[in-house]
Amino acid sequence: MIKVTIRKGQSVEKALKIFKKRVKESGMMLELKDRSFYRKPSDIKDEKKFEKERAKDIKIFLRKEQALIRKEQAERQNKIKAEKELKIKLKEQMLKDEIRLEKERAKDIKIFLRKEQAIIRQEQAEKQRKFLEQLKIEKQIEKFRIREIKELEQLEKVSLREQREDYTSLQERIDKLKEKYRIIRDQKIREREREREREKTDRQR
């Protein structure tokens, strides 16, 4: 029998709670429930059989679920492994492509620089050739100019040796001859300048 002693100052409600707790812990309510109605031994046997089969089915179900979970985990791990391997292969391919592009780029730059250097050397050679040609022409012009001055001076000396009453007309003819050669020389210089400008324009095109 379950007893509860009410202490001094303890309320009835609290004592009742303690009693209910002790009754529940003792298992009396379950025993009372079992004794409240009669069950045949066959029913108990069938119930045990059903419980055994249910436990067996639960065990099989749990085994299948665990196998399915392991299978899913293995598939997930294989998928992750395959994705990692694919990423590694893609990165390796990208690296190979970059190396190939680097080689092609270096080759193209080398060819480009070689061509540019050849063009620069050709342009420099052309400039040097034109400079030497112009220098040669200028030297030739200078020679002709010196010869012209000498010839005119010689003409002037020869003419002045002769006895004349008036040398004014002679000097005028000599000056006209000098002016003629000066005009011809200036015209040639202008023509060369125009030709040079025309060549420069053609190169720029």
Describe the structure.
With 205 residues, this protein is mainly alpha-helical. It has a domain of 37 residues. It has 4 helices and no strands. The longest helix has 121 residues. The protein is rod-shaped and about 180 Å long. The chain starts with 11 loop residues before the first helix and ends with a helix. The mean pLDDT is 78.
Beta-strand content bin: under 5%
Rg computed from alpha carbons, rounded to a whole number of angstroms = 63 Å
Question: Average pLDDT value?
Answer: 78
SS summary, helix count: 4
Low-confidence stretches: none
Overall geometric form: rod-shaped
Total strand segments: 0
Structural class: mainly alpha
**H/E element order:** HHHH
Helical content band: over 70%
> End-to-end span in angstroms?
124 Å
What about the largest sheet? Answer: none
List keywords for this structure.
0% strand
Précis, in short:
The protein is mainly α.
Question: Which helices and strands occur, and which strands form pairs?
Answer:
Blueprint: H1 12-26, H2 28-34, H3 41-161, H4 168-204
